Amino acid sequence: MKVLVVKLSSLGDVVHTFPAITDAARAVPGLVLDWAVEDAFVPLVKLHPAVRRAIPVPLRRLKKRPLAALRGGEAQAVRAALRAEAYDVVIDAQGLMKSAAVGLFAKGRRHGFDRATAREGLASLTYATGHHLPETEHMAARIRKLFAAALGYSLDGLPEAAGLDPGPLAPGAAPYWIFLHGTTWPTKTWTVGRWRDLAVRAGRAGRRVLVFAQGAAEEARAAAIAADLPQVERMPPLPLDRIAPLIAGAEAVVSVDTGLGHLAAALGVPTVGLYGPTNPRLTGLFGPKVVELKSMRGCAPCERARCRIAPETVEGPPCLADFSARDIWRAVSLVRLGHADAMDKM
Question: Is the sign of the CA dihedral 333, 339, 344, 346 positive or negative?
């Protein structure tokens, strides 16, 4: 059976699709699976051994400079790649008009969420079959059910597993933690002071700390976290296929609400996620070794990029600043020991 998956972005959404890919590879004999995805995430998609071909879609360039992209032939190249062969099933796992539009180029019977449960209901009009899967559980679980319905197998007995192969890990490296501090909203950030406090604790325990940064704002924050702390190593910008083995080899990952946190969780690394303005119930960390610390303030989650309580705050809103380095240290200790459930009782 030949299957095309359409899941274009974002990083977390792509990661939440991996368990369904693993299910399908286990349940469908002779499965051949291709994936249409935003070009930036092609290295990530290739980490799954069941993906035969990743079809890059230059989504951002098509949106920002559509005429230039069309003149350059990028749109035609995507259309040609999608129509290069016939698929038995095309699964739109995103449920947006942009993903539906990409799916229309492919040859095959299209499946997706029905009009009542797709993120953009009109997208369902492009499917031959829409499946009713309400937003009452995590997105990764819904996508698993979508694949099972579209491909005709049962999830009974299929364990949740991302199934990623991050490649070889660094041999003989000393234990290290990864701090994922970069995120899109100012309200999702933790304070530099708190990150430094946690780094000091890690250093005293003989752990190195790696910090990534993408763009000027993240570079400045990473520099502030690392200042005068020899145990903190600032990493250069790296593609996702080189970041993945670094994350996979970490002893623990501490993350704000950001895409790489989802990758850490999927790789089975002990991961602690910090949540203030956003609610992780439907789109939070999905993996075997995760703890999600959620703000107890009455205003959280507000789902806002600007804090209503402290609108002048550009970093570390009160809902996240409430978490101390001690809180995070305790959470990491529990998740590493396999006692993540104990956090709910504290």
Answer: negative
